[in-house]
Every structure is written in structure tokens, then in C-alpha cells.
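Data deposition worksheet. Section B asks for the primary sequence of the deposited chain exactly as it was used as input, without tags or linkers unless they were present during the calculation. Section C holds the resulting structure in C-alpha cell form. Section D is free text for depositor observations; keep each observation to a single sentence. Incomplete worksheets are returned to the depositor.
Section A, Depositor: J.P.
Section B:
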Amino acid sequence: MSKSKAGVRIREGEGVRGETSSDEEESVHEATRLSARLIYEVIRRYGEQELLRPLNSLIWSGVAAGILISFSVVGEAVLRTYLPDSPPSFLIENAGYSLGFVIVILGRMQLFTENTITTVLPVVANRDLRSLIAMLRLWSVVLTANIVGTLAAGYFLTIDGAFDPQLQVAFLELSHHATGMGTWQSFLRAIPAGVLVASIVWMMPSEKGGGFVIIFAFTWLIAAGDFTHIIAGSVEMAYLLWLGELGASAALLDFFLPVLFGNIIGGTVIFTMLAWGQVKNEVVHGTGEDGRG
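Section C:
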């Protein structure tokens, strides 16, 4: 009887172990971090979808992104105005800079600097003229739409009565600082910003919590590190243009073009090429169904 009972216990144990093993396997599969190859594939497919979007959709999404990214300037100005004047306040006030990025990225709007990696991966993978033309079309449309949005937002910031006078002072200080670094410094500081925004895009597929923490932390670092971002910075550039405190030539040559090229180099030439380099052999030769070579 004891043997029989023991046998039953063993068989029951085996059954339990089998079920537990299956459950554990499923849990491990769900908990395993996405491989670089899978992240690449997610972003590549999303990039291909973006390249096929109708022109109208790109324009409206891009204009909306340009307008709403202005909340980065507003958020930073609010914290600068009402925080006490002390060294730690600088780090806290830069948290306001993340606000516009959270709205735009989680709202799935077209932000030019995201496209320096998203739409480049299909081009790198396909290596054909059609993909390149589609990417350049999207880049030009989205960048133009973003700038139209920032011009509208910059004008709104100048309207008397729209904001407290104290905030207007903060807008002016932030805008002069952002656009007054000079050509070379603006270019150099745009490269890390491009890398950080591309990093956000690369990390989002692995983020199961919606991505808020990633977006907040990385864009906070852009502000705290005093790096330059072409779209958020264009709100400040537009603000000064509307006030007549910045000339069109200085805005274009000393700020806009250097920051634009710096963001592209950081997001495309550096980050995207490094990301592609680590997966290209796996993509070409394959490493199994799940991409965990």
C-alpha cells in the first residue's frame, strides 16, 4: 500500500512538475527581453508603415507635433519661474522639458527626429532607390510640417495675456540660451540629442509600461545636458523671430541648420548604423524563429 501510495504520489508529482514546467516556460518566454534582432524588426516594420502613410496624414500629424512640442518650453518655463533660485532647481526645472515629448511620442505624432531611425532602417534593409526616395519624401514633409507647427506655437507664446509676464521672461531667457550657442557648439550639442531620441525609439518595443519613464528620463537628459533639439528648439527660435529679437539669417545659419545636421548625424549616422551593425548578420542569415540566437 505504501508503495502504491508512493507511486501515486510520484505520478502526481510528475504531473505537477510537468504543468509547472509548462507554466514556467511560458513565464520565461514572456519575461525574456526582446533580442536586438526583434527590436530591429519591430522598428523596421513600423518604419515601412510610416513610409506608406498618405501625405495628408503626415502633414497634419507633423503640424500637431510641432505645436504640441511647445509644451516642453512652457513646462520648463513654469518650473523655472516658480522654483526657488538654487542649484538643484536647475535639474528639477528641466523635467518640464519632457512634457512636450511625452505628449508627442505617446500620442504617436510625427516628430522628425524619431524618423532619423524609424524610416532609415527600411532603407538600410532594402537598399533600393524607391525606399530612399520614400524616406526623403517623409523627412521633408514631416520636417516642414513640424516647423509650421513650431512657428504657430512660437507666435502664440508672444500674445499678450496668453501667459503671465513672469513666464514671458522665462520664455525669453530659455529661447536666447537655446539659440545663442553659436554654429559649432549648436552642431556638437545636437549630436547627443539625436542619439538620445533614437535610443528612445529603439527601447520602446521592449518597454511594457507604455514608455513614459524612458521618454521622460531621456528627454530630461537632453535638457539637463544642455543638448540641442531641432523641433523643440525651433519653438524658441520662432518665438524670438516673432519678437524681432533674432534675425532670419542668424536663425537659419547659427541655429537651425547646425542643429538639424547634428540631430541627423546623432540619430542616423551614429545610432542607426550601430544598431544595424549589431543585427545585420542575424537578419541576413537568421538565428531561429524567435530571433534569440
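Section D:
The domain at 35-284 is CATH 1.20.1080.10 (Glycerol uptake facilitator protein).
The CA atoms of residues 72 and 97 lie 4 Å apart.
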